[in-house]
Amino acid sequence: MQDARDIYQAHLDLVSRALWDRDYETIIAVNRFPHIIRFSDGNRQYDGPDDFAVMAARFRDHLDGLGATGYHRVCEHASFDPLDRHRITGGHWTYILRGGNYLTDPYNCEMVLVHEGAEWMIADIVVPPLRHGIPSAKAHPENREGQIQ
User: Fold this and answer.
1) Which of 11, 35, 89, 113 is positioned for an S-S bond with 46, CB 3.0–4.6 A?
2) Do residues 9 and 90 touch, judged by C-beta distance below 8 A?
3) Ordered alpha helix ranges (H), 45-128
4) CATH number for position 110
């Protein structure tokens, strides 16, 4: 059996590449629906692939608008649930770059993957509050300026 951290990082790489390439079909294929993204100030639910693809496209457009030249996510930790080997919980750092510099402060997220059929699917994501439409550890929960819906 593969290591939980390897599975988690492979999933991050797949989705990050797909987002950057605007391959929303790949992103949709590895997410469970309804899909909930949990922010400190509330949850956003995407009931199906269409509204999730719209959100992903808006986020990608927002990265372009900021002048981003790179989007990378790196696993910090991941482990199999001790009660369910078909569930991985983990955390990762997201880096949005312009050239070789940080465009935004790196931010950490948590994600749950569940094994369904032959695939690992994103079941849950927790992100920090938004600042200028991008998650940020420095953001305040009441600051929803520029939030991607």
Assistant:
1) 35
2) no
3) 49-66
4) 3.10.450.50
What is the domain extent for residue 66? 4-135
- Residue 146, sorted as left (phi over 0), alpha (psi -120 to 50) or beta, turns out to be left
92 domain residue, yes or no: yes
pLDDT tens digits for range 28-73: 999 999 999 998 778 999 999 999 999 999 999 999 999 999 999 9
Report how far apart, in Å, the C-alpha atoms of 125 and of each of 40, 114, 149 are. 12, 12, 15
Cα radius of gyration rounded to whole Å, the chain: 15
For the chain, the domain total comes to: 1
Other Cβ atoms within 10 Å of 21 Cβ, number: 11
